Amino acid sequence: MKRFALILGTFMAVVWLADRALLPQQGYQPEALQGVEVKPESLCYFPDNYVQSRERFRQLHTLAPPRYRVQEGLFKVPSADEDLTVDWLHLRSDAPRLVVLVSGVHGMEAPTGAAMQQLFVDMLRAGQLPGDFDVLMLHALNPYGFKYGRRATENNVDLNRNLDTNAALFGSDNQGYRRLRDFLLPQTPVNLGQWENRFFAERLSLQLLHDSRDAIQEAALSGQYQYPQGFYYGGDSFEPQQAFLQQLLTDKAAPYQSILFIDLHTGFGTRGETHFYPGNPATEQIKRDMAWVFQDYEMVWPSKASGFFPIRGDLVGFAGKLLAAEKRFVPIILEFGTMDSLATKGGVESLHRTMLENQGHFHGFQSAQDRAEVQRRYQEMFYPSSGRWRSTIVRDMIRIYPQVLERFQQLDGVRLETGHLNTTAMDSGH
Fold first, then answer.
1. Which distant-in-sequence residues (6+ apart) come within 8 Å of 288 by Cβ?
2. Among residues 256, 330, 261, 242, which one has the least CA distance to residue 293?
3. H-helix segments, 48-109
4. Which uninterrupted H or E stretch holds 103?
5. Each residue's pLDDT tens digit, 47-85
6. In 228-367, where does DSSP find H-type helix?
7. Packing angle between helix 368-382 and helix 344-363, nearest 10 degrees?
């Protein structure tokens, strides 16, 4: 009987393995969003490519309400490609508040961020955004990544791990990444048909015998400064955007009392949901102001339970170091989920796609088909082609923008340190 059970078990295992080996290599697909109406007027916000998106951004000043004075500029990023620019638009009046919207600190995430910037200006023009505020927008902070379909810069640097006021950042040691290096960074051309990729989930399960899921996620996501050909590499020195940002943000923020700083991202989180990620606020005052402005939404604080982990060298942290000492500074990272990465299947697939893209960039592909499939999966992870997904993001932001701006307007009447609304100050106009 035992022998029969062993034979049967072996047979079933062989059948299962054969079935897995013959599966078409289309990759995991997140569940479709149900009950969402696809609206053509929403889809038109989403650009096809970097050049089209930049041209649209350069025309946004024509939509600005007449109360604003328009200032524009660009920063030419040093590159082998001489047509890579970070463009900015400043809509100025005499308002005491400034709203900053940044797209594309991760290049592949720029198209959705740029779409949300255009939506913001359309709503501003239509009188749908409450409050007295000025606007500063930065388009495609990582234009190389946007144009060439990468999350990182031309130097393979993750800008959101590279921004700080202190170069000591580059001495950070991610010991978990170091320990997992051989698993995370294959050194051969990508072959989707080989067993390492067909059975990636099983390989990861074996890795979990040595490292917990949280340990692997934290090691992979928090950033690393040791391996220039690894993903989430923070660099060994500042990228050119750091000095540009430091000067622009310091100069443009000078006249304002309060700053709402919105960093637009895609990829992480539940598909079709907008996650409010606060980063790592430097002071309790910033936390209190964030709690007020975003009180209508659940903020996802870094923790093992949330799946969001603290990172170093991030944009909102950098902006806070530049501005928070003299301003009421309210930062937020808006993360538009694409892959259900908080669930096991989505999380495993997100890691695999990241590894494959990085592996292919540095070590090539076994075939043109492998290249095309890896690039397709990678783009879908950060810029889904789904009309339902895109319509959902526009629908949500049409609701979110006015609510957040209303709370930001009220912040002047919220007493410092207590976080309580000072109705007397509001009524008296102070």
1. 417, 418, 419
2. 330
3. 50-58
4. strand 97-103
5. 999 999 999 999 999 999 999 999 999 999 999 999 999
6. 240-253, 284-293, 315-323, 344-363
7. 130
User: What is the spatial distance between Cα 382 and Cα 113, in angstroms, rounded to a whole number?
Assistant: 11
Q: What gap in Å lies between CA 264 and CA 308, rounded to an integer? A: 16
Longest Cα separation, the chain: 88
Q: What does residue 71 show for φ and ψ, rounded to 5 degrees?
A: -125, 135
What strands, in cross-sheet order, belong to the sheet with 134-139? 69-76, 85-92, 134-139, 97-103, 258-267, 328-337, 274-277
Number of neighbouring beta carbons within 10 Å of residue 250:
12
CB neighbours of 268 closer than 8 A, spacing ≥ 6?
Answer: 275, 307, 308, 335, 337, 339, 341, 350
- Contacts of residue 64, Cβ cutoff 8 Å, sequence gap at least 6: 70, 91, 121, 124, 125
DSSP H or E stretch at residue 139 = strand 134-139
Mean pLDDT of all residues belonging to the chain: 89
Q: Could you tell me which residues come within 8 angstroms of residue 412 by beta carbon, excluding any fewer than 6 positions away? A: 96, 97, 257, 258, 425, 426
Least confident of 120-129, 214-223, 338-347: 214-223
- Match 């890896």 to its residue by tokens: 374
Q: What is the sign, positive or negative, of the torsion defined by CA atoms of 15, 20, 24, 29?
A: positive
pLDDT of 209 over the 90 cut: no
Structure tokens at 253: 């923020």
Q: Where are the domains of the chain?
A: 35-146+153-174+222-338+384-428
- Name residue 134's beta-bridge partners: 98
Residue with tokens 């940044």: 102
Q: Return the structure tokens found at 48.
A: 């096809």
Name the pairing type of β-strands 328-337 and 134-139.
unpaired
Q: Which amino acid is at 22?
A: L
Q: For residue 398, what is the enclosing H or E element?
A: helix 387-410
Can you name the CATH fold of 35-146+153-174+222-338+384-428?
Answer: Aminopeptidase (3.40.630)
The verdict on pTM exceeding 0.85 is yes
pLDDT digits (tens, 9 = 90+) for 280-330: 888 899 999 999 999 999 998 876 565 566 789 999 999 999 999 999 999
User: Which stretch of DSSP H or E encloses residue 98?
Assistant: strand 97-103
